[in-house]
Design brief:
This protein is mainly beta. It has one helix and nine strands.
Length: 107
C-alpha cells in the first residue's frame, strides 16, 4: 500500500523559522524529468493550488501536486543542516538510485 509522503517536525520548524506560512506560502515539493539520474526534485516556496495534496503541521504547509504524488509515495520530507549547508531533503523509498547531490534520482 502506497502512503502519501510525510513531513518531519524539523522541516515544519524550518518553514516556521523562515516565516513561510506568515507570507501565505507553502513548501512545494515536485518531481520533474531531468537531472543526471532521470528525475529531479523541484523544491520551492509557492502558494497551494487546486488539486495539491496539503500536508500541515506547526501552522505550516507542504504541498505536492497530483503529477508528482505517485513518485513520492511513502517518502519523508525533512530538513538537514550539515557542514556543506542546510536544505530540505527527500528520503524516497521509490528511488532505485540517486546522484551525489541528492536532488536527482531514478526509479
Amino acid at each position: 500500500m502506497t502512503l502519501p509522503p510525510t513531513v518531519t517536525e524539523r522541516a515544519f520548524a524550518r518553514l516556521a523559522e523562515i516565516g513561510a506560512g506568515a507570507q501565505g506560502k507553502a513548501l512545494r515539493v515536485a518531481v520533474e524529468g531531468g537531472g543526471c539520474s532521470g528525475f529531479q526534485y523541484d523544491i520551492s516556496l509557492d502558494e497551494p493550488a487546486e488539486g495539491d495534496l496539503v500536508l500541515e503541521g506547526a501552522g505550516e504547509q507542504v504541498v505536492v501536486d497530483e503529477v508528482s504524488l505517485p513518485f513520492l509515495g511513502n517518502a519523508v520530507i525533512d530538513f538537514s543542516e550539515e557542514l556543506i549547508g542546510a536544505r530540505f531533503v527527500i528520503e524516497n523509498p521509490n528511488a532505485s538510485a540517486s546522484c551525489g547531490c541528492g536532488t536527482s534520482f531514478s526509479m
